[in-house]
Design goal:
Number of strands of chain A: 12
Oligomer: heterodimer
CATH class of the largest domain in chain A: Alpha Beta
Largest sheet of chain A: 6 strands, mixed
CATH superfamily of the largest domain in chain B: ABC transporter type 1, transmembrane domain
Structural class of chain B: alpha/beta
Shape of chain B: elongated
Strand order of the largest sheet of chain A: 6-9-10-3-11-12
Number of domains of chain B: 3
Number of helices of chain A: 21
Number of helices of chain B: 22
Strand content of chain A: 5-15%
CATH topology of the largest domain in chain B: ABC transporter transmembrane region fold
Number of strands of chain B: 12
Largest sheet of chain B: 6 strands, mixed
CATH architecture of the largest domain in chain B: Up-down Bundle
Strand content of chain B: 5-15%
Structural class of chain A: alpha/beta
Shape of chain A: elongated
Radius of gyration of chain B: 36 Å
Helix content of chain A: 55-70%
Radius of gyration of chain A: 36 Å
């Protein structure tokens, strides 16, 4: 297990490092700058010692060489400042760009996932992966890597110098390395667990926050503020304790531990020289140098340890990001290239489907919608109508049966073709933050201003849009919550109409619109349906009576099929539903008549 | 450094921990002087040949003692100072959440979810840093720096010390200037980050729409643009951020240069020795770390300040829906009256409701109908005080609703919103939202009235089925009916159905209305609907049009009026009659 996790950490690190590839040149440049700055740091004191030894001590004050010395000292300082500024900036830039690339990767991955993934993962925790976790990786590239490389070089150099001075003693000092290794390994093992725990808690915090903020209206109206506060506090508390645990591990194993090791090494050297001095004289100079080097050796070690917790955080955050990047719950795949949808004939052939793998929500569904025809799906809520549309839209993958478009498998069409030719109006009209115009156009730059206006007029949305501040430029707040659901529905309609699809899919779309508006939309839809294959779910049978084929679904099965008249004549389920819907009217027949 | 002042309430609150932490920190600083001293003594003794085994053991013993006590002290100051910082984050996060629960809906219309979340996570992180590393660095660098300066002035030359300190004001000016620049830029960077959070949040919530329109690529492009903006804003932070270290090192360099030049003169004048000059520069070298730390401190603190400003600003937001001080601690009951002169949403210009006056006796059913955007939902929102009326009043049981405690008012009301929001929890928990410990029987009963019981039993896990975020795997009708069951569980004095039957079919609607009539005998019910069949049985039907009452009365009265209601009713009936005719005559 332990081996597993450390090899897992190495894998994560390598994968992180792979992100530096496009920036190799800049990184090399930045390291060169770093090298120059380091050389400058060393040169300054050397110039000072030249001054003291060659001029001040012999009291040899001659103007010209001193001026040169002084000028070069200040010159080096100035160059050093410039170089180190650009070096610092470069590393930050690289880090930011790497994080940016990673964010886009994660976001793109999220977009490619199937709806099944979104069913089981709260939005808050996905957001946390895309933004917060990637942010935690940033430090890795700003300071951690630089420090690790720099420290490694320094430690190596000092060890070599020690060997040159005294081999035996240097060997003693090598004993420090396994101790350091042991501390680092223990730290990494413990902290990776604790950081995982903490990021997990953070993710839970985010999920709770996100849901509570979105559902605050419901929470308040049902006066559950206190309970939700308590629930949030519990998660907050757990997050706090996870944070404290991290501080404890850091305190036990980082800087304080390294200082203890330093004192241990000091004791070792002093005892070695002390005991030697009982029998034979020792070289004080060597002793001094060793103590000096020991100090210098521990400087990079401390630097390294100070970054170790950042490193650990980055690795943990990265492994969470990579888990998402490796998520296999992909959106159903489409062929990359393939045919164009010409006629728009749709055929379901013996399709069965289950969301959870346990209970079939669709059983052996077969039907054909010929080009330009309308197929209506009716049935009680939960009878499987929406599932047919979910499969038709390729939101979920199906294994049993086949869906054919123009005689070819739906899978053989490229994604773009499918999306461009099939227009869906969802039962939950979702509006984005932005203007109404942007909401109609979405990101499709090909749709012109005129087309937007036309689309809005087409669905009779322009009446209410004109009354809003700035009309089409009216700012829609998050989820469009200042608009009524009917208004949102109208905008969603306009959106579909602006995209001008070949096949129209309506999912209970008319349910939220008042009769007056709906009539206008019915007219618009009738025009739209001309030349387009339409699959419609409607609760009110009146809206689909002209459908070419009506499928009556019950518990995932098609129990009746035919035209409105045929089904009425059958006096089956459809007939019953129809009577129920019209039962209340009988009293009023005379009024109308 | 202003943020330390802003945070002083917290330092006071946690003064024990902070004082202990700082004392421990100073003790460590003192103990750190021990090992060099012991090294000096041992080296001298070896040099003079006076070192004996016993003495060596003593010194080594002292080193062990110092080492171990430093280890313990270092561990504990971390717990004290860093621990308090984590506590601060926890406390602020709780405050924020509590605050969120108190804010009215207009707040949520103005703010975006991702932004609010960024406040509770990223900003708190920056504040936590300030209260932890910030305090540590401040204390540490002041202590070390002060100690070194005192040593320089006292043991070598106060004149040279002053000269060496000449460039320091320059550093102070520059770093505080950077600090200000950083503050502003950091603010922008945080905002960009928040915006990116929002973008992500929204794309995930709207994933179905994006997929439907095949706009994944374009949306990724949009995301790339926004994250480019984050990079840009952060690079502008980095441009200032990277100035600190070089500035400090050049200032130290000048200081070095000055002390060598003037020190050399003092040496030539025999005011100090060369040895003293060398230790002077060594001391100066010791000053580099606290100064760099100071630069770093600025960075932490400015980030902390920017974030603390953001969080305080959010916490300072006042809810528009306020409770009166002497509000009645009483659940309202009785007659409900609306006397609305005008109502305008905050930040909007056009009134949504105008001159809406009517009343409803206890136990009656009210139907509100009208076109999309006529103001039906707004009327309900005023009753549950999601918004407050400035011009007019709503009464309940003979008193203005503002006279009751908000909690008590809402206790009287079961609301089924148009946007049926379900939590990521089991169906059971969603229905038992107001009382998680309620009897199963009562949950079943509510579900049965809402006509969802049988549906639930058909799910694989029945009542324990987890409904995904916003109830993804349920149909609209099912979500609506669970929302209805949730409200029914309260057995509220007033039940509000805000277009809550729109996604259920006619048969189900009929059954629910029938069950409701029976169940809510003697209790008030308010229904808004597009389908008139849902409100036909109401004691009072109000027809709204563009925020005004167009017609009012019972179904029968309205039918006699020959107005909008009748026209709409006949139209809805006609559609159905046409179908019926079709069946009778075969068309």
């Amino acid at each position: 297990m332990e081996n597993n996790s450390s090899s897992e950490q190495r894998r994560v690190l390598l994968r992180l490092l792979a992100y530096t590839k496009p920036h190799v040149k800049t990184i090399v440049l930045a390291f060169m700058l770093l090298l120059i700055a380091t050389v400058g740091d060393i040169l300054g004191p050397i110039l000072v010692s030249i001054f003291i030894d060659d001029y001040l001590r012999p009291r040899n004050i001659v103007f010209e060489p001193l001026l040169i010395l002084g000028a070069s000292y200040m010159g080096i300082q100035i160059i050093n400042v410039l170089v180190s500024y650009f070096q610092l900036l470069k590393f930050q830039e690289i880090a930011l760009k790497i994080i940016q690339a990673m964010r886009v990767d994660v976001f793109a991955k999220v977009q490619s996932l199937g709806l099944r993934y979104f069913d089981k993962t709260p939005a808050g925790s996905i957001v946390s992966r895309v933004t917060n976790d990637t942010e935690a990786i940033k430090e890795m590239f700003v300071t951690v890597l630089v420090t690790f490389i720099q420290s490694g070089f320094l430690m190596g150099g000092i060890l070599i110098a020690m060997f040159v001075l005294n081999v035996k003693l240097a060997l003693f000092c090598l004993l420090i390395l396994p101790v350091l290794y042991f501390i680092i390994r223990t730290y990494r093992r413990l902290s990776s667990k604790f950081y995982h725990d903490m990021r997990e808690r953070l993710s839970q915090l985010n999920a709770k926050l996100s849901e509570s903020i979105q559902g605050m209206g419901v929470i308040q109206v049902f006066r559950q503020e206190k309970r939700l506060r308590k629930e949030f506090e519990e998660i907050n508390e757990k997050h706090f304790f996870a944070g404290m645990k991290n501080i404890r591990v850091d305190g036990l194993l980082l800087r304080p531990a390294i200082d203890l090791v330093y004192i241990g090494a000091l004791i070792l050297i002093l005892s070695f020289f002390g005991i030697t001095s009982f029998n034979s004289p020792v070289e004080i100079g060597v002793l001094y140098a060793f103590i000096n080097y020991l100090d210098r050796f521990f400087e990079p070690v401390n630097n390294l340890m100070a970054r170790l917790s950042l490193y650990q955080q980055a690795i943990v955050a990265a492994s969470r990001v990579f888990t998402l990047l490796d998520e296999e719950e992909l959106a159903p795949q489409q062929a990359l290239t393939g045919g164009k949808m010409t006629n728009g004939q749709i055929e379901f052939k013996d399709v069965s489907f289950s969301y959870d793998g346990k209970r079939d929500v669709l059983k052996n569904i077969s039907f054909v919608a010929r080009p330009g025809e309308t197929v209506a799906l009716v049935g009680h809520t939960g009878s499987g109508k929406s599932s047919i549309i979910n499969l038709m839209m390729r939101f979920y993958e199906f294994e049993r049966g086949e869906i054919l478009i123009d005689g070819k498998s739906i899978r053989s069409y490229p994604q773009d073709e499918l999306r461009a030719k099939i227009g869906l109006v969802l039962q939950d009209p979702f509006l984005f933050y932005g203007t109404i115009k942007e909401n109609i156009r979405l990101h499709n730059g090909e749709i012109t201003e005129e087309e937007i206006v036309e689309a809005a007029e087409f669905v009779q949305a322009h009446h209410f849009i004109e009354k809003l501040d700035n009309g089409l430029e009216h700012q829609v707040v998050e989820r469009g919550s200042t608009l009524s659901s009917g208004q949102r529905q109208l905008i969603a309609f306009a959106r579909t109409i602006a995209a001008n699809p070949k096949v129209l899919v309506l999912d209970e779309a008319t349910a939220n619109i008042d009769t007056e508006t709906e009539e206008a939309i019915q007219v618009a839809l009738a025009r739209m349906r001309e030349g387009r294959t339409t699959i419609a779910i409607a609760h009110r049978l009146s809206t689909i009576q002209d459908a070419n084929l009506i499928l009556v679904l019950h518990h995932g099965e098609i129990v009746e099929r035919g035209t409105h008249q045929e089904l009425l004549a059958k006096k089956g389920l459809y007939h019953k539903m129809y009577l129920l819907q019209n039962g209340v009217t009988e009293k009023l027949e005379d009024v109308v008549g | 450094m202003k943020v330390f002042l802003q945070l002083s309430w917290f330092f006071k609150q946690e003064k024990k921990a902070y004082i202990t932490g700082i004392v421990l920190l100073l003790m460590v600083a003192f103990l750190q002087l021990v090992p060099p001293k012991i090294i000096g003594i041992v080296v001298d003794e070896i040099d003079q040949g006076t070192l004996a085994a016993g003495k060596l053991l003593l010194w080594i013993g002292l080193l062990v003692g110092a080492g171990l006590s430093m280890y313990v002290l270092r561990y504990y100051w971390r717990i004290m100072i860093f621990g308090s910082a984590v506590k601060l984050a926890r406390q602020l996060r709780k405050q924020l959440f509590d605050h969120f629960t108190n804010m009215s809906q207009s707040f949520y219309q103005r703010k975006r979810t991702g932004d609010l979340m960024a406040h509770a996570t990223n900003d708190l992180q920056a504040i936590q840093q300030t209260a932890g590393s910030g305090v540590l660095t401040l204390v540490d660098s002041l202590a070390t720096g002060g100690f070194v300066i005192i040593a320089m002035a006292a043991t070598i030359s106060w004149k040279l010390t002053l000269i060496a300190l000449i460039p320091m004001p320059l550093m102070a000016i520059l770093t505080s200037w950077y600090g200000n620049l950083l503050h502003r830029r950091f603010h922008k960077a945080q905002e960009a980050f928040s915006a990116l959070n929002d973008k992500t949040q929204e794309s995930i919530s709207g994933i179905k729409v994006l997929k439907t329109f095949g706009q994944e690529k374009e949306d990724i492009e949009d995301f790339r643009r926004q994250s480019d903006d984050v990079v840009k804003k952060n690079i502008s932070v980095a441009k200032i951020d990277s100035l600190f270290d070089p500035t400090i090192s050049i200032v130290v360099g000048i200081s070095f240069f000055l002390s060598i030049v003037f020190g050399a003169r003092y040496v030539l004048n025999d005011e100090i020795t060369i040895g003293e000059l060398i230790s002077f520069t060594t001391y100066l070298g010791l000053l580099i770390w606290p100064m760099l730390a100071f630069g770093w401190l600025f960075n932490i603190v400015e980030r902390g300040r920017a974030s603390y400003d953001r969080v305080s600003r959010l916490l300072a937001e006042k809810t528009e829906v306020l409770e009166q001080k002497d509000a009645l601690d009483l659940i309202p009951s009785g007659k409900i009256g609306f006397q609305i002169a005008t109502f305008i949403y905050p930040g909007e210009k056009e009134p949504v409701l105008q001159d809406v006056r009517f009343s409803l006796k206890q136990g009656e059913t009210l139907g509100i109908v009208g076109k999309t955007g006529a103001g039906k939902t707004t009327l309900l929102k005023l009753l549950i005080r999601e918004f407050d009326l400035k011009n007019g009043k709503v009464t309940f049981g003979g008193r203005a609703i503002t006279e009751y405690k908000i909690k008590k008012l809402r206790e009287a009301i079961g609301y089924v919103p148009q946007d049926h929001f379900l939590f990521s929890a089991t169906i059971r928990e969603n229905i038992a939202f107001t009382n998680p410990l309620i009897d199963e029987e009562k949950i079943f009963k509510a579900a049965k009235i809402a006509n969802i019981h049988d549906d639930i039993l058909e799910f694989t896990d029945g009542y324990d089925t987890i409904v995904g975020e916003r109830g993804v795997s349920l149909s609209g009708g099912q979500k609506q009916r669970i929302s209805i069951a949730r409200a029914l569980l309260l057995q509220p004095e007033v039940l509000i159905l805000d277009d809550s039957l729109s996604a259920v079919d006619a048969k189900t609607e009929e059954e629910i209305l029938h069950a409701l009539k029976h169940e809510r005998e003697g209790k008030t019910t308010i229904i808004t609907a597009h389908r008139l069949s849902a409100i036909q049985h109401a004691n009072l039907i109000v027809v709204l049009d563009e925020g005004k009452i167009l017609e009012r009365g019972t179904h029968e009265e309205l039918m006699e009026m020959d107005g909008w209601y009748k026209e709409m009713y006949v139209r809805q009936q006609l559609e159905e009659l046409v179908e019926q005719g079709g069946s009778l005559y075969g068309k």
